[in-house]
Amino acid sequence: MAESAQRVLPKDFMGDGVLAAMILKVVANWAGIWLWGLALWFFLISTGAHWSCVSSGRMTFSMTWYSFVFPNTALVTATFAVGKAFGSVAIQVVGCVMTIALIIVWIFVFSMMIRAIFLKQILWPQKGEDRDEGGWTTKTVAAIPLNEMLNHEDAI
């Protein structure tokens, strides 16, 4: 958005449209790098939070494993955008490495999903997300005939 500000803003915008567009681009780039750093921090924190479960092999597959892949595609895309905005080849190389790692993680999650299907851990009654855990039960409501409902004293 800031890249096209010089083309979009009127020439007399805030006194000098060209200067305002250049300032907007600088502010947008610094805000973008701050958000990118924050996203990297969240990535590192979430990786550390899952490390104890993954390293001991206590995580059984569930479809939520795809959340290891898809939110991080935004981080990879943002890495390329930051590299382009600052003209940094090093950051773009980091983006390429992150892309390769993300593809490997996606292949791993996909293969674990196929494995879970064959082991009947998912897509099987009372397995995976289809479990009735924690004492949750399905309540059934008895049907009341329409003529009883209409003849009831509390009917409006």
Write up this protein:
The chain is an all-alpha fold. It has helices spanning 5-8, 17-55, 70-86, 89-118, 146-151. Helix 3 (70-86) packs antiparallel against helix 4 (89-118). The protein is flat. It starts with a helix and ends in a 5-residue tail after the last helix. The mean pLDDT is 84.
Write the topology of this structure.
Layout: H1 5-8, H2 17-55, H3 70-86, H4 89-118, H5 146-151
pLDDT averaged over residues: 84
Percent strand equals under 5%
User: First CA to last CA: what distance?
Assistant: 59 Å
Radius of gyration: 27 Å
Structural class: mainly alpha
In N-to-C order, the SSE pattern is HHHHH
Tertiary shape: flat
| Helix percentage | 55-70%
- By DSSP, the count of extended strands is 0
Main beta sheet strand tally, sense and closure: none
Low-confidence stretches: none
Number of helices: 5
Summarize the structure.
By secondary structure, the chain is an all-alpha fold. 62% of the residues lie in helices and 0% in strands.
Task: Sum up the structure in keywords.
mainly alpha, single chain, 0% strand, flat, 156 residues, 62% helix
